[in-house]
Amino acid sequence: MAQRTVVTLLDDLDQSPADETVEFGLDGVTYEIDLSAQHAATLRDALRDYVEHARRTGGRRRASTGSSSGGRSATGGDRRNGAGARASVDREQNQAIREWARKQGMTVSDRGRIAREVADAYHRSH
């Protein structure tokens, strides 16, 4: 005799049938919640203003649904306000930190991440 097990996804808010599992994060904690399409839309609407003003820190890219990237460039800069120039400013500052650290007798590499202690010492001295 064959058996079939059926798993029914229920909306965590009202126990109605759920259409999707929504993942979101806050304060370094990632959450999952099973929601109906209506509740998922309500959650996304509630977070929209915050998400539009936030910086993306990782995670997977959402599949395109025909909407634009919201003005963000592939490098993470914002094309609307010229924030893409931030990368060159960061490079210049990193170079200045490296030069300062070497003059202080510290060992730093030519490339890669600068140790937090070195960067903190630089910022304290400037």
From TrEMBL:
Which Pfam families did the record assign?
Answer: Lsr2 (PF11774), Lsr2_DNA-bd (PF23359)
Spell out the Low complexity composition-biased ranges: 64-87
Q: Which residues cross the membrane?
A: none
Q: Does the keyword NAD apply?
A: no
Give all residue intervals belonging to the Lsr2 DNA-binding domain. Answer: 90-123
Q: Which organism is it from?
A: Actinomycetospora cinnamomea
Q: Which UniProt keywords apply?
A: DNA-binding
Q: Report the residue ranges that make up the Lsr2 dimerization domain in this protein.
A: 1-58
Query: Under what name is this protein listed?
Result: Lsr2 protein
Give the source's domain of life in one word: Bacteria
Annotated region (Disordered), positions in chain: 54-96
